Amino acid sequence: MRRPILLLTLTLGCMGALTACGDRTPMPVHVVPEPATVVPETGFFEFSERTTFAVGDDEQAAVAEAFAALFTVPAGFTPRVTTDPAAAGDIRFETDTTRTAESYALHVTPTGITVRAADRSGFFYAMQTLRQLLPAALEGSRAADAAWRVPAVRIEDAPRFAYRGMHLDVARFFMPREHVLRLIECMAQLKLNKLHLHLTDDNGWRLEIKRYPRLTEVGAWRVDRPGVPFPARRNPAPGEPTPVGGFYTQDDIREIVAYAAERQIEVIPEIDVPAHSNAALAAYPEYACPVVNRYIGVLPGLGGRNADIIFCAGNEQVFGFLQNILDEVLELFPSRYIHLGGDEAWKTHWKTCPLCQARIRREKLASVEELQGYFMRRVCDYVRSKGREVIGWDELTNSRLPEGVIIQGWQGYGQAALKAAAQGHRFILTPARVLYLIRYQGPQRFEPVTYFGNNTLQDVYGYEPVQEDWAPEYESLLMGVQASMWTEFCDTPEDVEYLLFPRLAALAEVAWQPRGTKDWPGFLQRLDTFLPRLDAMGVTYARSMFNIQQRIEPDGGALRVELACIRPDVEIRYTTDGSEPAADSPLYAEPLRIEGPVTVKCATFRDGCREGEVLELPLDFNKATACPVLGAGANGYVLVNGLRGSDKYTDSEWCTWEPGKEVSFTIDLGACDTLHRFTAGCITNYGMAVHLPSQISVALSDDNRTFTEAASRRFTPAEIFREGTFIEDLTLDLGGRTARYVQVRLRDAGPCPENHVRPGQSAKLYLDEIIIE
Predict the structure, then answer these.
(1) Are 201 and 272 in contact, with CB atoms under 8 Å apart?
(2) Given 201, 272, 509, 748, which residue is catalytic?
(3) Topology of 2-157 in CATH?
């Protein structure tokens, strides 16, 4: 009797797991993040309505059922899950207590799949790997013609870091609940396990607190400044309508937390104190310092001097207020960690506040910086008394650290976090220079306006957290890494997604892969397989990795044009006749030498199809073009490289200098010539304090020793500090004089005036092309 039963079992198994017996070539396995060990084998396992999961307990069943449910809509069937120990499943979960947390072993054969793990996370991550081995149609609507099969493979896998995070700023831009849930789904596929929610800031309070309803009635809403970028928005006036905003109800939060927990993601709330608190203080102004004499409103932008309005450290009632808020936060978020901010606290009012000064004397503190340390220790101690751990930004290292606090290193490359590590504190790295996803992710001419410079996909992927010069003990204190998505320039959920993806996939590889195993071309292959999953989910993502960055330098009277793309698997095709580049256009193989006016157009191609945007470079020539520039600094060549900069002053085509010093540089025309007119391109970006100079002058010389001023021009504050973002040409009449050397002198505009959005900050000066006629 035993033999017929065995044959029946094998027959039923083959019905649920068809094998491609004729295929002896192992199929490539593309998963993001890349598993630690991948050994492809031959054949396929195919899912069908007869496929059965056999698991060991209800916890494993929940993981299997969630995975099986993915098939319901696109495939039209749902594999069965059983906890019956006698059942013969096609996919078997086996508990292996010798494995490390979150690790798993996955073996796919044509006749079945075995998963081994020690915990629920391990089984879940094995399913996410299996999910990526299935067609991308699994993430979409009905796909009747899809082949629901996965290649045979052996995988051994475990994460490098226990903390693999994504920070989401929902205070600057309120991200609706359903979009947060979709981001959590994407995080789960990438095996990220920490969602840091930045819930409060000057620009909005996003969490319902029952005890203090005005936090959301008032603090969740701000004035509208349509068409004005975040840094340039003026503060609200009393009585202005506040139509922009939103908040999460406590039921919303419970749903988000539960949804994330099912996907092995811990949601870490951030209640930022003592600064970034205008939204809270707009609702409850009695908790600001009594010396504040300005209207407190929810800020639509940076806030200027109003950003100095923070919680009063001398008012004892502030601590009761925050403790009551934290009581509700702790009930809503079962997370091990609570983030308390502690960043960018300007102490302007603490210096003159009688309550704060009394606190300093009473506690025998040395300074207002130590007062922040006192403030943070009190709030941290309260959270710790409730059995939780505290995370704070790296400014906490400016004074005595609260006991047990975990430091999140963000400034620069996160070096300040090492000050905490030297004192034995754990830390997390999210360096702004690499992992702040608000920065541009590709050649800026094609990107929506945001802050600062670039953090490309390749920059994120290439980041190595552990540096060679670290003390040996630091690595053991490093909990992991986090990509931080700040939303100052986001107006829609799609804006947020565009900045997150695909860079979040690169962060996942940094967080998961063993050190020293990076493979940029291999990652791109895996990414190309992952992106269709985002397409199927309707997630917006950038294709900036296919765009071209130019570098144009003088080259012996001509221009040397270098073109580059971060993807090594594309061709760059170009034209110089005004036509659009095509697959049969000239192939860029080495820098171009341009000797006269021309427009270069170029784009990337792969397999005959255009991948990137068309980069158009209108190169113009004048007497200064391609001439040596003396004294302008390392990037002075952009002043004479024939290409005008875009409206993004960090696009690599603008020359700038340190504020507060007179600027002087000289252009060597190579020979004496008759000069009629001088023009310098100048950009204004009001919100970033980029403005015209206060004055500009041009002097001429035949020998580069004796100069005679030929023309000058001064600008009034009204001309300099105009609002907006725009480019204008500064033109001077040289009167037909003859000279070889053209010396340019400029002074920046000095401190921004009091009515500026950045009062007192030094104005910055950016020049573009110098045109001499």
Answers:
(1) yes
(2) 201
(3) Chitobiase; domain 2 (3.30.379)
What distance in Å separates the CA atoms of residue 92 and residue 109, rounded to the nearest whole number?
Answer: 12
**Active site includes 276?**
yes
Q: Residue 573: what pLDDT?
A: 98
- Pick one of 2.60.40.10, 3.80.10.10, 3.40.50.300, 1.10.1410.10 as the CATH number of 547-619: 2.60.40.10
Decide if 708 contacts 697 (C-beta within 8 A): no
Starting from the edge strand earliest in sequence, which strands make up the sheet with 149-157, in order? 37-46, 149-157, 104-109, 112-117, 91-95, 52-54, 80-82
Task: Provide the token pair at 398.
Answer: 């400016």
- Per-residue pLDDT of 266-289, as tens digits, reads 999 999 999 999 999 999 999 999
Radius of gyration of the chain (CA): 30
Q: Where in the chain do CATH 3.30.379.10 domains reside?
A: 2-157
The average confidence (pLDDT) of the chain is 95
Q: What is the pTM of this model?
A: 0.95
CATH architecture of 629-772: Sandwich (2.60)
CB–CB of 63/129 below 8 Å? no
Among residues 167, 179, 196, 276, which one is catalytic? 276
Of 217, 344, 475, 562, which one is the catalytic site residue?
344
Region 180-184 average pLDDT: 98
669: Cβ contacts below 8 Å, ≥ 6 apart: 623, 624, 627, 739, 740, 741, 742, 772
Inter-residue contact 402 to 381 (CB < 8 Å): yes
Asked if the model's pLDDT at residue 594 lies above 70, the reply is yes
179 is catalytic: no
CA angle 617-620-624, nearest 5°? 130
- Read off the pLDDT of residues 654-684 as tens digits, 9 standing for 90 and up: 999 999 989 999 999 999 999 999 999 999 9
Clarify whether 651 is annotated catalytic. no
- At the topology level of CATH, where does 163-538 sit? TIM Barrel (3.20.20)
